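Recap for those who missed Tuesday's class. We walked through two folding examples back to back. For each one, the amino acid string is listed first and its predicted structure tokens come directly after. Nothing is annotated here on purpose, so try labeling regions yourself before you check the end of the notes.
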Amino acid sequence: MKNIQASKFDFIKIIFEYDFVNEPAYISNKNKRNVPLILGVEAIFRIKMNDKLYFEEELAILEFYKSLFRWKEKVKENEVPEFHYYSVEYADYDDGSIISLIPFSDKARVKSIWGESNIYNVFDLTYIVNEFLVLEQKMREDIERHFNIELKQFIKHIPYSTSG
């Protein structure tokens, strides 16, 4: 992933990693409308900040991808909306979303209700938005390659929640 240098006083590096749980033959293009199968496509997803593990959970990766994809469509040069990932599989979100990007001023914070450690994580806005956009692109490419599918055929059928 490409790194953009933030201010010399507060640069925090973020790394997103994921490992698919399902075998490549688990889903194919002919399953584009099979919601239970779509939600069964999973990956172990990790977020590391300055090489320290912040988040690690098994996620419905197509649902998470769609949340990123929809957020990316709303990002403008001078306007970055909040990103929130909720899963249709979980009902209790009183404490917040599974993964969030909260912009403020020229900074942003990454948060999770399932965060494994308390890490100071105020990022330069340009840097963190770029990392989330790179994640969306890389994830699309990796999902399509691993499962030999075309996500554009699936995207309208992948369920996702915009709020808890």
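Example two. Treat it independently of the first, because the proteins are unrelated.
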Amino acid sequence: MEAFNNNFFLGLLGDVSAMVGKGSSRSLMKHKASIQSLMNAIEVVRQHRSMTHQYLFHKQDVTAEIDELDKQIVKAANSLAGDRYIGTSIERISLRNKLLQLTSSYKGRSVSTNLVAHGKMIRQLIFQIDSQMMLSLDKANQLDLAGDYNDQWQTVMSGIEALTQYRLCIMSMNMGLKPELLAKQAEMLYLKLQKVDAVYDEYHPALSECIDELGSYLSVEEPTEEYQQKLFALCSIISPTLIDVYQAIVEKTFSKAMSIGYAA
């Protein structure tokens, strides 16, 4: 009789463990879907930054493209606002309102203000992704994965911050910026990208190419519009690559969490 009770108890523990494992996996999948929505929003904001920059800096008539991206931003903003897995209701409303601000009055912004507004929005979305990552790992009882993820996240964010500062320096080239300041910021970005490359242990050829390309622009030339355009074009290559690396880190972390969840 005692053996029967022990076997029953052990069996019950196994059933509960399996239920917890399945529940954790379901929770991870729901959070992963929300994180993908945030990633999609980042991509739309990036495209919007590129088009509005072309309009403001290069004086190109891309208003039709911007209008279409405005619609995509509105759609993304409303989608995030209705996703209960993303932060608190106040945080979702804040995200929505700040996304919608990007679609208004872009014609009246300066080039630098436009870059700052979009960069700040991208960083806010990344911070929200990070919050969701930690929350999902916590709910799945897998915070042991948070250490490696956080180190990689911090390194990528440092690279994104350095890229933002580099963009602003490029914008200031024809406003009396001392050449050595641009060279210093370029060197800082170069070092940050090398750290991203070192901390991300998967082969990412685009990142390596970005580092090599940036290396050829560490020296400062005359602040001609053509040279500025080359540097801005390089930033437009580096930016999505850093986001791709971050998305790969998120995917890798979720893959580990899911495998552990199913094993449980």
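Answers for example two:
The first helix runs from residue 2 to 56.
The chain has a mean pLDDT of 85.
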